[in-house]
Amino acid sequence: MYNKRRKFDPRYLLILIIVIIALILVVLAFALRKDRNLSPIEKIGKDTSTMILKVVGAPFDFVKTKLTEIKEKDNLYKKYKKLQNKESQINNVISQNENLENEVKKLKEQLELNTILSDKVFLNATVVTRNVGYWYEEITIDKGKKNGIEKDMAVINSKGLIGKITKVSNYSSNVKLLSNSNMSDKISVKIKIDDGYVYGLISKYDSKTNTYTVEGISQNVDIPKGANVVTTGMGATFPSGIEVGSVNKITTDNFDLSKVVEVKASVNFNDLDYVTVLKRKGK
User: What pLDDT shows up at residue 248?
Assistant: First the structure.
């Protein structure tokens, strides 16, 4: 007679599975409680996972930060370039406005000349060329024979006498300046003093000091510094009363017989853009 092998009852297996599931549910329920304290193992696991996340995430955070900085710098540079372009445009506009204001000012000054020398007809003109080698000799203006200009007509600007017409073509003219080195025609001027005028002749011009030398004045006359100097009107070229300058210095000639007066020119011969020709009436 032999012992039969006992067969495993499936009911035991089912009971075991149910018990394991129940234990897992109990553990999970306990672990999910919000107000419970962490066990030492959980603390270690949580701290370890946090540290790992920080170490792994640090390079990514660094790269992200640098990319953000580069993008911000690029945006700032673009804004800077835009502002720089705007600044350049503003400077150009300011420069153009200053030039326009200067031109308008000069034109207004020229127009104000119409209130003097009523026996003359005023013709405003623009300086078109000026030879650098003969800067103080002559200029060319954009008015000529077709505009009624003739040789020897006086030319002025808002500050005073400039010179006279020497050559005329149909649409342009040459003006011989008072600052020319070859002043063959001496210009008669008068200097204002307390009881009237004293008369003399402009003999030369000094471009370094922008002054005329006036000779032929009596030694006995007392001339104040700063006295006004104008044309006398003697001769057919320059009318009387055109501004020439003001007395700057008084000396005597080599023979101590007459005074030599240094006159500061009222005109700046380095800045001639617009001029006025004094035409004779009927021309």
Answer: 94
Alpha-carbon distance 46 to 60, whole Å? 22
Task: Write out pLDDT tens, residues 23-47.
Answer: 676 666 555 555 556 566 655 655 5
Q: Considering the entire predicted model, what is its pTM?
A: 0.59
Identify the CA nearest to 160 among candidates 264, 40, 10, 81: 264
Residue with tokens 């006295």: 227
DSSP 8-state class, residue 12: H
Q: How far apart, in Å, do the first and last CA atoms of the chain sit?
A: 165
According to CATH, the superfamily of the domain at 187-266 is Rod shape-determining protein MreC, domain 2 (2.40.10.350)
Residue whose C-alpha is closest to residue 245's, from 217, 220, 226, 271: 226
Residues 6 or more apart from 260 whose CB is under 8 A from it? 213, 214, 215, 217, 250, 251, 252, 253
Question: What CATH number is given for 116-177 in this structure?
Answer: 2.40.10.340
pLDDT, tens digit (0-9, with 9 covering 90-100), for 130-175: 988 888 889 999 999 999 999 999 999 989 999 999 999 999 999 9
Give yes or no for a contact between 134 and 106, defined as CB atoms under 8 angstroms apart: no
Residues of the chain with CATH 2.40.10.350: 187-266
16-41 per-residue burial string, b: 16 or more CB within 10 A, e: under 16: eeeeeeeeeeeeeeeeeeeeeeeeee
- Kindly state the helix (H) or strand (E) to which residue 72 belongs, with its residue range: helix 40-111
Q: Which two tokens stand for residue 26?
A: 């109990």
Q: Strand locations in the chain, DSSP E?
A: 120-129, 138-141, 154-157, 160-168, 173-177, 187-193, 196-206, 211-218, 228-231, 243-252, 258-265, 274-280
CB contact at 8 A, 176 and 163: yes
